[in-house]
């Protein structure tokens, strides 16, 4: 599916964080490896049992705000997830194409808004280690609104908070259900990231165009 953006008609670019501006390798390691290992060690169960238990816990709250909530997981698993996040912070890295793209957007007057489901503590740790904030105009965590991006109420709240015009907005994310939610709200351009984790094979999108390098968008911007 090809994405033709009429850039002269776009005034706002909404961007996810993990897997979109940052390499998702950090989160995949944290949630798929470190959390199960730490949980298994705490309970004295085998790695396989720990993985299965954690997978079931994740599945139970997928696409809800709790899925993204460090406080929820700390309480649910009996682990200090915030402290673990702080400790692992240096693993957070920007994608290579992030800064060139964000700077190009700034140069042609587009508003750059981060819209992340990441918990505020998670967001703060990643900003500290990546310097991402200096390349954005506004940073929003869905936790402050009380709904995740999968929920239409979040989009209504963000639109009223920022005054964005859905018909003049491009949204970039690495989750198809979230892109679906944005499109349902009326966001004109929805783009999926095909390589959110630098260590994994590229993914495909069924209902949205995909891209693996933002630098390919820059010539059209100019």
Tell me about this structure.
This protein is an alpha/beta fold and 222 residues long. It folds into 2 domains: 7-24 and 93-220, Rossmann fold (3-Layer(aba) Sandwich); 26-90. Helices cover 43% and strands 12% of the residues. It contains 9 helices and 6 strands. It has helices at residues 25-43, 47-60, 70-77, 81-88, 98-107, 120-130, 152-162, 176-185, 218-221, and strands at 12-15, 111-116, 138-141, 169-173, 189-193, 210-211. Helix 8 links the parallel strand 4 (169-173) and strand 5. The chain is globular, with a radius of gyration of 18 Å.
Strand tally, please?
6
**CATH domain fold name of the largest domain:** Rossmann fold
Largest beta sheet: strand ordering: 3-2-1-4-5-6
Helix content: 40-55%
How would you sum up the major sheet?
A: 6 strands, parallel
- Going by CATH, the homologous superfamily of the largest domain would be HAD superfamily/HAD-like
Overall geometric form: globular
Question: What structural class do helix, strand and pairing data support?
Answer: alpha/beta
Number of structural units classed as domains = 2
Write the H/E string, N to C: EHHHHHEHEHEHEEH
**How far is it from the N-terminal to the C-terminal residue, by CA?**
23 Å
Instruction: Assess the beta-strand content as a share of residues.
Output: 5-15%
Question: Which CATH class of the largest domain applies here?
Answer: Alpha Beta
GO cellular component, one term: cytosol
Pfam families: Hydrolase
Keywords: Metal-binding
Organism: [Enterobacter] lignolyticus
